[in-house]
Every structure is written in C-alpha cells, then in structure tokens.
Amino acid sequence: MQFTAQGTFSDGTKRDLTNLVSWTATAPVATISSGGLAKTYTQGSSVITAAFNTPGGLISGTATLTVTAPTLVSISVQPAVTTVVAGNTVQFTAQGTFGDGTKQDLTNLVTWTATAPVATISPGGLATTYTQGSSVITAAFNTPGGLISGTATLTVTAAPTLVSISVQSAVTTVAAGNTVQFTAQGTYSDGTKQDLTNLVTWTATAPVATISPGGLAKTYTQGSTVITAAFNTPGGLISGTATLTVMARALVSIVVLNASTPVPGGSSVTAKIAQGTSHRFSAWGTYSDGSQNILRAVWSVTPNPNSIASINGSRAIGLSPGTVTIIATDPATSISGSATLIVTAAKLTRIVVSPVAQTIAPLTWLQFGALGEFNDNTTQNVTEDVKWSSTAPAVAKISISGPNVFATGVAAGSTMIQASLGGFPGTAPLTVSSASLLSIAITPEPAGLPIGSNLNFRAVGTFSDGTKYPINLGSAWSITPNDGSIATIVPVGSAGVIVAGIAAGSAMLEVQLGGVSKNAVLSVQSVSSVAIAPNPVTIAQGTSGKFTATATLVDGTTLDVTSSVTWISATPTIAAITSAGSVTGLAPGTTTIGAEIGGQFATAQLTVTSATMVSLAITPTAPADVALGGTQQYTATGRFSDLTTQDLTNQVTWSSSDPGVAVVDGFGTASITGPGTATVKASDSIDGSAATDQKVLTMH
Predict the structure, then answer these.
(1) What is the pLDDT of residue 265?
(2) Spatial CA neighbour of 524 closest among 543, 505, 540, 497
(3) Which of 154, 438, 629, 659 gives 352 a disulfide partner, CB atoms 3.0 to 4.6 angstroms apart?
C-alpha cells in the first residue's frame, strides 16, 4: 500500500514531503520503503510513521495500517478432464484463488482423494490407474470458514490386448554358419503395433539353429528350423513363427599347405625343393560354418607355361631353379588359394630309407619312406621321387599307393628295401618271419553304429610266434546284408574299412585273409545324445587344440564319433575346426564349438587368447639311447606369456641333425636308422613368436 506525507507550514501552506521524510512501520506486520510503499506480511496492525528533522526539532505524523488474512475462495484441479489407459499415471495440480484475487499453488498443501477402485492418488497429486472406469479426483483444504475443494474427472480405458505376433527377418534362406536377425512385432486390439523383439521369448528348433534372447539366430547345419517368438499375456500365451531354411555350408576360402601338415593353419605355405624332386600339397577349404576340410581341387602353376615346375594333381615337380606359384581352385565355386614353390639347384648327397631292421610276418605290411640329404644342408622327403625295389621279391614285394610305399611279406627270409635317385641308393634291411596267421581282431571292438555315422575299423592279426601286425592291406572286407539297406562299407587300403550306418538294424561285418576270418555284429541305432570333451578349452592365437565327440546310442552304448560328427565354429573369424575335431585359433575371442550327429547337438566353449609363445620344451629331457630300428616318442610343450602351457607336438617342425642316425616325423616320433648320435630339434613360429628346443638321441 502506498502512503503519502503532507507537511503544513507556519504560513498556512502545505507541501508533499513523501520522498523527504523518514518512513518506519512497526514489525512484523509490515515494512515500508523510503518512498512510502508498505509491504504487508501477516495479520495484525502496524503504525506507519513519517518523520522530518527541522531546526526546531523532529516533526512526525502517523497512520495505522490494519492487515487482515486473505480468504481462500476456490480450488482449481488440473487437468480438469483427462483419459488414459489403465496402468498409466497422471500428475494433477491444485491452484487456490483468494478473496484478494491472488492465486497460489496448493498441490502439496491440499488433501488428495480419488474414487476407488479405478485409481489412487498420492499426497503430491500423482494418480495411478488400475482398471477401466471414471474416478473423481478431489483436492481439499481446510480454512477458518470451512472446507474448500476442487475436483477433476479421470477417465480410465481398458488396456489394448495383444492379438498376434509377426516374426520377420531380412532373409529366409542362408548357408550354414551364418547369422540372421529376427524381429517380433505385436498387433493389439486397438490396431496399434509395437516392437516386441526384446520382450518375447525366442526359440529355434535344434540342431539346425539356435537363437539369442535378442532374436539373433545362428545356423549350424543344413535343414529347416522354426523360429518362435512367444509372449505371456493375462489371456494366455501369444506366439508367432517364421521358417528359416539353412542350406549346405558355403566355401569361404582356401589355403594351400604341405600335404604332411597334421593340422591346417591360417595361411598358405612356402615350400622349397631341389630340382628333380617333388612336393605334394593339400588344399584346405574353410567354410561358412567355421569347419575346415581337404578339397578335391583343380591344381595349376603360374606362370604357365614355365620351365621351373610342373604340377600333376597336387604333386609339384621341380624342373629348374626359380620360383612359381601353385594354385588350388575349387571347381564348383572358382574360389582359389595359392602357395609359393621355390626350386633350388641343390644336389642330392645321400638317401636315408626308414624304418630299418624291422621284422614282419607273411601277409603283413610295413610302410617305408625316403629322406634325401642335399649339398645345401637341407633335407627333403623324396619318397615319391625315388625308384623302389626289393632285393628279394619272393620274400617281400613293394606296392605303391599314391604317395605311400609299402612292403608286404610274402615268405620267410631277408631282403633289402631299396630307394634310388640320381645314382644315390638308400637301403633298409627287412626280415619276414615264418609265423603263420592264427586269428584276426577287428578294432575298435564293434558294437553300436550310429545312423548317419562313418566309423573306421581296422584288422590286426595274431601270428603263431605271438606277434601282432596290422593286416589291412590284402584283407577282404564284407558286410551282410550287402544291399546297403542297413550299412555300407568302403575299403581304404592300409587304413582298413569305413562303415556307414544307413538305417536301424543289425549287420554282420567280416574280414578275411589267408583263410582266416573274423566277423562281428554291428547294431545300427539312433543317437540319443552327444557330448564334446574337453569343455571349456583355451588356446593361444595361432595354435591348435583337439575336441572329441562321444555319442550315446538308444541302448546306452557309448562310442567315439569324433570323425563322424559335423563340426562347426559359431564364429569362424575366431576359430576354425576340421572334420577330425582339430581346432585352430585365428583371433582372440570366444566362440562356441558345435557337433551334430543323428539330429543330436552338443556345444563346447573355446577361448582364443592373445598370449605369445615364450619358450618351447621337448620331453623326455634326458638323452635317449635307442636300439637300431627302434623309436623314441617326443612331445613339444610351448609356454606362453600368460603363464599357460600347450602341447604343440603336432604343430612344431621336427628335424634331425643326422637322418643317417634318426629321422623324425611330423608327430614327434624319431625312428633310428643307423649308428651314431643325432640331435632332435623342434621349432615353431606362432604369430611372430619363435622358439626352439633340442635333445640328444643315440643308437646303441
């Protein structure tokens, strides 16, 4: 309120002193500014004083200001009318209008109520809806003159119900090993649609595919899988489906390796041979499902024509010094891989034939190999380059199957197995005993055979002198019934026979040699489960590991089906796996390894680390002393930067300082070839980390 001060002077004149006087007001009812503007605060009376100093003393005047409390007149509730779906919340506010025209927010001062059971409301005005209907929202305030209140109407509608789920993907057909993202869209009773991809429960029919909680399907094997998205509602389970067709795995890439490489690596090789010798390669295909297999490739050499090397199948022949590229191409896809072949001018200085000083029985066989030493201090497998013969064919005869050379015992006596190349002979003595074949055993012991599997059986003969020898070469295999209705057989020479399970039933497997036979009953059955071991597995990048698969048949029989299952790697960029269960770490990370047979599926976890190789150790550590013709098995263990160790026996490069004393194969087996002392060496380079170790081996 604005006050003014008027002064009356001795001559009767009057004058406005509002801005000249000193203003005061008795607290706490009011305060007053230097210009006379009074601000009221609370109910009561305040004396307003205007004072002015004159030469004759202080002159003042007063007025009384009575302050009364404002009266609440009404309450407005907002929003006044609103409609929501049951389950939602609504914030209400309350505004009071007073008798002096002022307004004030009373949201946190009023008492809130809502008519049940449609809704409830909190002390701060937040209404929660529960069911269809109308609820009156009331805000009330007690004043000296009585209860003042305001209301609003809240209309609650029923929530729309989920009617159906549509499952969609960008593609419906993929090659095994790929992933497909699925989405789930729900349609409601009010016609609205909502993305439910991360709310539904996803399932996929095994073993063709699996699917993550977010709808990402991972395919494993050829076939069809039903992808289901399900959601529980008060009215029951609502679901939608889609069919994903998985085609056969697709070839992704090819690496060209040495044919003798036990486990494929991630990159092609560079081979070096002397002119006039040869080298056999192998083409390994990596597929979309992370599996690796040897391909039947079309081989070529570039440049073409050239005078450096020729190619016959997978065997490259060095003609003159120089470098060429060996190419393996898949005829179905035209995907290719290549390796480098270097032909040197090195000259042969010695041929070593192994094994030596062995004894076999008639009808049995022994495999031989030839290693060449050259004047550039290199050694090379020349088994396919030499000319093989037996000095006594009536005692033992030579047979050649591709890159493999065998001597088969004919009759009792002694012979020399000879290998010659370029005027250099190599020999190994062989004795054929007079022992006769008494009985045959089939290994592994035949029992159950899973439908859809391929199992390898071998024959071992027991002879009259108590010795046992493999007798696969020359043995005759058969199966009854022989119409292929239950099982089929494929003889594989020195490796025995492959038996394939076709349909449930019993089949008789028989092997016969020299009038002696052995038969066994095979029960072809369905697979009830399959398991992978070990699980989990951790390997370093660039190294290899090994998985095995064990099937349980419907009658409870268990058997090793490692070479019969379909192996996959869920993330092929992290690891690849061969049909024999050998896995190679390609990049750091974790992947799932899967095995499928007969509609049954198992998984194991593989972690590939970034650890680097620190050292390599050969065992046994003590110097070995072995008899002529004997063998010594070595293992190579790598130690890595994360303090782990790994068996690298089948991955390292083995060598002997003197092949005339001992030769070492790719699996660490040293065979004694002559008198003296040699150093056995293992070396490896893994992702740039190299390590070696060596041990002394002596013939006694």
Answers:
(1) 66
(2) 505
(3) 659
